[in-house]
Amino acid sequence: MNTKLKIMTWDDAQKTIAQWKAAGEKVVFTNGCFDILHLGHLEYMEQAQALGNRLVVGLNSDASVKRLKGNDRPINEQEVRARMLAALAFVDAVVVFEEDTPQALIEHLIPSVLVKGSDYKIENIVGAETVIKHGGEVKTLTFVDGFSTTSIIEKIKTL
């Protein structure tokens, strides 16, 4: 499959998700910067996908990552990060968002399940209220210890 086809506009993703839901599929959504893809990301997204039939990943744009993480980030540009995510077999769609949070994207897509890491409390997860209001679920997943983009960058700096 051409991985570029999994990278969708907001409207294309909305239409695709509506089709999946009409076919009875449960659509899981998560989001992040995914700057340097690592084992923690893979484990997290595999667990997220297992909560439904389809996994949609909201990806922070380059400008959004820079605002959230600082001027030295992202390491990889959004097109590269989007393609890497799209190449994963368990990711069905990647949608880039410019804002600092995925709130507007979640409101646009209305996934069946919203997933974040266990470092979040459900009541503090952006978009949780929207998903629950539309009959969906919000879940948290445990991270794999010892893996983060920041720790990888720090390790590289010491080499």
TrEMBL record:
Pfam families: CTP_transf_like. It is an enzyme of class 2 (transferase). Keywords: ATP-binding, Carbohydrate metabolism, Nucleotide-binding, Nucleotidyltransferase, Transferase. It catalyses: D-glycero-beta-D-manno-heptose 1-phosphate + ATP + H(+) = ADP-D-glycero-beta-D-manno-heptose + diphosphate. GO terms for molecular function: nucleotidyltransferase activity. Residues 29-154 form the Cytidyltransferase-like domain. Its EC number is 2.7.7.70. The keyword ATP-binding applies. The keyword Nucleotide-binding applies. NCBIfam families: cyt_tran_rel (TIGR00125), rfaE_dom_II (TIGR02199). This is D-glycero-beta-D-manno-heptose 1-phosphate adenylyltransferase. It comes from Shiella aurantiaca.
